[in-house]
Amino acid sequence: MTGTTPLVSVSDHGALKQAYSCFPTGVVAVCRRTSDGDDIGMSASSFTTVSLDPPLVSVCVRDGSSTWPRLVTADRLGVSVFASHQGDACRRLAGPPESRFDDVHRSITDSGALFIAGAAAQLECSVLQEVPAGDHLVVLLQIHALRSDPSVDPLVFHASTFRALEARRAQS
User: Fold this and answer.
1) Domains and CATH numbers, the chain
2) Of all residues in the chain, what percent carry a pLDDT higher than 70?
């Protein structure tokens, strides 16, 4: 890209999506088990850390999501940071609701937080706040308990595909 490449209008949604895809993100599952025993969850690629004190993370949810209204009412949600080998599970959780958990190994806490087995990190959270933002909600989640394994590489989403991280030595 050069400085002479013309800027395009943000009304061009294709160009906007392409620009957004230039920024790599981690991918998470947000899940719960209902008191009726139903497993509900979805994948999200707009996840970020927010605060250490109090411990907060955020996830963005599309307006009109049919899954979010079934998640937001939970006392506790499980947020699983997908590991690099979990692309299939991530795609499944983004697919049709009736088959999202087919062949997806998971665990459930007493509070109903549902976690994807083998994830790089698992955060037991509650919804602190929902902030309307354009065609999405920015959801602030407070973390109550967690487990993590920094030796497990995370799944990375970049340019509309899954990628792996590469460790590089600092140059002197």
Assistant:
1) 26-158 (2.30.110.10)
2) 98
